[in-house]
Amino acid sequence: MKQYNGDRVKFARIYNGLTVDELASKLNISAQAESQYEMGKITPQFDKLLGLSKVLNFPIDFFLKKDNISINTGSSYFRSLMKTHKKYRTEQKTKIQLLAKLYSILSEYIEFPELNIPENIESYDSPEEAASFLRQFWNLGEKPIPNLLRLLESKGIIVTSFETSTNDIDAFSQYFNINGKNVYFIAYSNNKESAARINFDLAHELGHIILHNWNEDTEDISRETFKEKENQANEFAAAFLLPENAFRNDVHYFSTELQNYIELKKKWRVSIAAMIHRACALGIISMNQYQYLIRVMSKKGFRVQEPLDNILEIPYPHLLKDAVELLITNNVFSKKELLEEFSNCGFPMEPKEIEKLFVLDKGYLSNIEDNNDYSPLILKMYSKD
Predict the structure, then answer these.
(1) Domain with CATH 1.10.260.40 in the chain
(2) Cα angle for residues 115, 121, 125 (degrees, 5° grid)
(3) Which of 102, 91, 93 is nearest to 73 (CA)?
(4) Around 326, how many Cα atoms within 13 Å sit in the side-chain half-sphere?
(5) What is the pLDDT of residue 84?
(6) Which residues contact 110 (CB under 8 A, 6 or more apart)?
(7) What residues have CB less than 8 Å from 353, skipping those under 6 apart?
(8) N or C terminus: which one in the chain shows less Cβ crowding within 10 Å?
(9) Which residues contact 285 (CB under 8 A, 6 or more apart)?
């Protein structure tokens, strides 16, 4: 027998980035009543449950099921943590937790790439050394990486993109233990329209995966410790994307010519600003030369949009999308049956929301037969005697 689950109301509220007061206002009820819904002290009448479904964009069934998938959640690292409101961080962490549970369902049918990163990930003397070792470990040499996103997916790291109502979140990473396996998720903001900046965000989060402890609560660390970790991740990203010897050879003879960095952006797929910073860090240019080039960039408007930002192809995640399409095209599930499988595992979802989470094409699941009919059990629960 289905029973109302107040925890699911709280989950869906946070998932949608709403406060208790904001949700209560949308439902035309008091904040106290909404809190009692979440605590399970009051079971909403059917009209209110229908209102919750419409406002939060989850099927009614979602609020009548328990979460029967257990995963262990570890640390999460957010870029711009100190200036990002906790509300937005919690919203994105909730979404990635749901994605991880849907991933665990898919993994019963799909053999995803095994996580392939070095052991003893905290043993490196410097981010530079860690980046160099990882390039060797993955047999990358010192060549540019044509598609970092696909490389990460091939190494068992799950990448997704996300919508956000704030520009304060560039990207974040999250650790889970799913069915006894370590799984890292990287999510980056859809707000960015620069392949070069997305690449750096991905490399930055990879730096956290390689360098840092994933068993601590990053919300509790000091501001100084957080800044140190961010700087280490930035150093790793620069060294991983722009290996010293190859990059030095490219930059050396025209190190103070801005046009040279524009040309090199095509090759390395790294922003001009990041390359100039890397050149300074390696001692190829002086601090005065670095500051001069940055001033020129600002004068030309390159600090807002760099040359080639509208030309270099933006990468998109494919691993989860391909997994869903593989199940459909090989007739393991029809589209409707896949939605039913998620529902049977405790996660009835709106098709459009699954499309967002798995970065599926719009309409891929939502153009099938309407799935919003209310089951006889739901209607029976709310029928009057």
Answers:
(1) 6-66+333-381
(2) 150
(3) 93
(4) 12
(5) 64
(6) 323, 326, 327
(7) 57, 58
(8) C
(9) 255, 256, 276, 279, 293
pTM value?
0.90
Calpha distance 118→182 (Å, rounded): 13
Cα angle 38-39-44, degrees, rounded to a multiple of 5? 55
List the 72-78 sheet strands across, edge first: 72-78, 171-178, 181-189, 158-162
Q: pLDDT by residue (tens digit) across 297-319?
A: 999 999 999 999 999 999 999 99
Euclidean distance between CA atoms 44 and 50, whole angstroms: 9
What CA–CA distance (Å, rounded) separates 371 from 385? 28
How far is the C-alpha of 44 from the C-alpha of 22, rounded, in Å? 17
**pLDDT at residue 236 greater than cutoff 80:** yes
Both tokens assigned to 145: 């990486």
- In the predicted structure, residue 377 carries a pLDDT above the cut 50: no
Quote the pLDDT of residue 194. Answer: 92
Token pair belonging to 92: 């994105």
Distances (CA, A) of 207 to 195, 265, 276: 18, 21, 20
pLDDT in tens, 245-272: 999 999 999 999 999 999 999 999 999 9
- Cα(329)–Cα(313) distance, rounded to whole angstroms? 27
